[in-house]
Design goal:
155 residues, seven-stranded antiparallel β-sheet, 3 helices
Length: 155
């Protein structure tokens, strides 16, 4: 994990993770090399500084140097919606779907500190990190992910 609070936190934390992934050639480790990110903390309603945290999957036995941190993520069930980078207004659509679902209910953390447990998965990170010497691909796609659980059946 890479975490940064301050100006342009996505780029700062993203650079830390990308440098680590490239240096360790994660695409050669038989890891799925997936990348997730989320606001941490969320931007305040009145604007101002916020943070962003990126995670990248690594082999269990891989060492992680500071300032990066090794974390274990247990996973779970998520509602997903694919967007192109920048279409973050579509979070509203996904939350609307989750609130109206007859099968699922939101199962988030309850805290704006970690974006309520929601994640953004950067798709095709394996190819991006392997084939792009630095920076981001021209068109980046994301899955917006909301933690959900099945609704209790009513008798």
């Amino acid at each position: 994990a890479a975490h940064y609070i301050g100006p342009d936190p996505e780029n700062h934390a993203g650079r830390l993770i990308a440098d680590f992934a490239r240096k360790n050639k994660l695409w050669e480790t038989n890891s799925s090399v997936r990348q997730y990110g989320f606001n941490h903390p969320n931007p305040p309603p009145e604007g101002g500084e916020y943070g962003y945290e990126f995670w990248v999957t690594i082999p269990e036995d891989m060492e992680v140097p500071a300032p990066l941190e090794k974390k274990h993520f247990p996973g779970g069930t998520y509602a997903a919606h694919c967007i192109q980078m920048g279409n973050f207004h579509e979070w509203q659509w996904l939350f609307g779907w989750a609130y109206e679902s007859e099968e699922y209910e939101i199962n988030g953390s309850g805290s704006p500190e970690d974006m309520y447990g929601c994640l953004e998965e950067h798709l095709n990170y394996y190819d991006h990190i392997r084939n792009t010497p630095e920076g981001e691909p021209e068109v980046c796609q994301l899955d917006l992910l909301i933690p959900v659980k099945p609704k209790a059946k009513q008798a």
